[in-house]
Write a structure and sequence with these properties.
Layout lengths: L1 H4 L1 E4 L2 E4 H7 L9 H11 L5 H24 L1 H7 L12 H45 L5 H23 L6 H4 L1 H18 L9 H18 L12 H27 L3 H13 L1 H11 L3 H8 L1 H9 L6
Helix pairs in contact: 3-4, 3-7, 3-9, 3-13, 4-6, 4-7, 6-7, 7-9, 9-10, 9-12, 10-11, 11-12, 11-13, 11-14, 13-14
GO molecular function, one term: transferase activity, transferring alkyl or aryl (other than methyl) groups
Membrane topology: Multi-pass membrane protein
Subcellular location: Membrane
Length: 315
């Protein structure tokens, strides 16, 4: 009885909600709102109706990308990851594509409602990168750059949303460039590492990504002066440092294990830690932007995401 209540009907076949959650890596979406908050904080207004609407849009686009990923990867997953929802038969392949299309439409619609033309101006290229990555670029040299670009645009979407909320002030996107670059750098190395989740990686790869992660953490912890030119107060600096340490304490340690033994299992664990490790990194960047209170709340999401990831894999 409970299983039937948890079913969703696509065409003539019911699909369990738990399988759809696994398809879209539902808990991993907790790594998305922080992109928007980091960009919005840099632009001077971390919270507001436009920001919340942009968060919802980005979550929809993230889930769309996950569903599209499994649609595109179905032949490969049938060999390498037969337990996934599509190759296991729990979710039909056409359902994954339908869900990706529906979530993409919802994401673009929310972007238009919350940000108007400016919101769509960021959401459309973001959507294009997500679809291009899943359908064409993933296995090419351009794959990590495409994914990094998508995450960077997600941060800029937050900056644009905050700028729109402040009477369309110009320069909001430019103020989001630093957090966008740091999130994009993290995403680039994470995507490069993820290509070795099955067969393992040469030790030099996780060693390189670990070095980049350490540099990213240092940059995120270095709270920038406010627009008035004043240095950040002790609370802001402390929250930014805590976020950076939380980032290194999860993703960094997982990479250390992968350096010591770069097996597929350890690389896969490092990738999962890197996905969820975005949250404390985003918290550091949000504090860096002058919103330590919002950053502290965001940081509390990380342990929740880790607990949920034990039930639904983020990779």
């Amino acid at each position: 009885m409970n299983d039937r209540k948890a079913d969703v009907r696509f065409g003539s076949r019911p699909v369990r909600l738990a399988d759809l959650a696994s398809l879209v890596r539902a808990p991993a979406a907790l790594s998305v709102p922080g992109d928007i908050l980091a960009g919005a904080a840099a632009a001077g207004r971390p919270l507001g109706p436009r920001t919340v609407g942009t968060m919802a849009s980005s979550v929809c686009l993230y889930w769309a990308g996950m569903a599209l990923n499994d649609y595109a990867d179905a032949p490969v997953d049938a060999v390498e990851r037969p337990q996934r929802p599509v190759p296991s038969g729990r979710v039909p392949r056409r359902t994954a594509l339908s869900l990706a299309c529906g979530l993409t439409a919802a994401g673009l619609g929310l972007a238009a409602l919350s940000g108007g033309r400016r919101g769509l101006g960021v959401a459309l290229p973001l959507t294009g990168l997500v679809w291009a990555y899943d359908l064409k670029l993933k296995s090419t040299k351009a794959g990590p750059a495409a994914m990094a670009g998508a995450r960077a645009l997600d941060v800029l979407a937050g900056a644009v949303a905050a700028g729109g909320a402040r009477n369309g002030s110009t320069g909001s996107g430019r103020r989001g460039l630093v957090p966008a670059a740091l999130v994009g750098l993290h995403t680039y190395t994470l995507t490069a590492l993820s290509r070795h989740e099955i067969s393992g990686a040469p030790a030099r790869l996780p060693a390189t990504t670990l070095g980049v992660s350490a540099a990213t953490a240092l940059a995120a912890a270095g709270a920038a002066p406010s627009r008035s030119g004043r240095r950040p107060d002790a609370r802001t600096a402390a929250v930014a440092a805590a976020g950076a340490l939380g980032y290194l304490g999860t993703y960094g340690l997982a990479q250390v294990r992968a350096v010591r033994k770069p097996s597929g299992e350890n690389v896969r664990r490092a990738v999962g830690a890197g996905i969820l490790g975005m949250v404390p990194l985003q918290a550091a960047l949000t504090a860096r932007g002058g919103a330590p209170g919002v950053a502290a709340v965001l940081g509390a999401v990380h342990p929740l995401a880790r607990r949920l990831a034990r039930r639904v894999s983020p990779t």
